[in-house]
Amino acid sequence: MALAKKGLRKIVVDDQIFYWKIRKIVSHNEKHDDEYGIPVQHESEGQLLLIYTGFCRSIDYGRELMNITPKLIQSKITEAIELGWNYSQPGKALDLVNGELIKR
Fold it and tell me: pLDDT digits over 63-87, tens only?
């Protein structure tokens, strides 16, 4: 499964090119306090990674605003690789949650 090209942000980690994105439109689930998984994919369109950092855009639930920066994304990509994410290989999407890789 490849990420839609519109709105992608490029990041380089260990000389490898990855793309990530945050949707502009807030989904119904996000409005109702669901955490947003930030999708990341290697340029080869291998295995998709969803990074969960506690980022949520539901202002009505008392959550603090969180800035998602390229530095944060870079550190999470590095963490996922160290945990065994085979980013260039095809496969089902993985979730990175609290320092663990979880298969979908």
Answer: 666 778 999 999 999 999 999 999 9
